[in-house]
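Student:
Attend to each token:
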Amino acid sequence: MPELKYKRVLLKISGESLKNGKEDNSIDFEILDRIGGEIKQASEFGVEIAIVIGGGNFWRGALASSLGMERAAADYVGMIATVMNAVALQDSLEKRGVFTRVQSAITMQEVAEPFIRRRAVRHLEKKRVVIFAGGTGNPYFSTDTAAALRALEINAEIIFKATKVDGVYDKDPVKFKDAVKYDALSYLDVIKNSLKVLDLTATTLCMDNKIPIVVFDITKNGNIKKAILGEKIGTLIS
């Protein structure tokens, strides 16, 4: 058994990570099952794992707002989308024997517990995986901000942001072949250079409270397990 670097971590998974291709607005169950399998493997080593999940595979509030929908209403629809993803991930984990709880920032008592900080911490202490859905429960805040907020509330040691890119680059590596990857950055580097890693609110929260962030590629097999177990991967922001 490897020596654990972290006791309690927060994993941020974007909704986009759950779909296959740009046009498909759904969940790819092969991807979901792979993610569930890697989380199970990491949990078996005793790491306490909390997850914040996005809803971008079903709905993007900012896009709906730009097309004329009232922003608060668009964001609430996005929160509902995150609950859909959370319940799907819970099902994948529990099929593997991983005790899991979904806590939602918006009340949906038939499918999720309300978010209660002390209850969430107790679940983690009992080695249950806790999935936080519903963002912060407020419009105008991203699920990145929800991840930073929940990490602080549960005293997580680090945030792992799972993306479709293997770290942070100086420019979009999909569009520019000469893009340079950073192994490490400071919070101020991210803010000053407007690097699109986390939104400004989330980055500032992490900086003020000194919680590190690792950005890594979720599409490669084994990366979730490597990240959670503390192996060097992606880009560290601290």
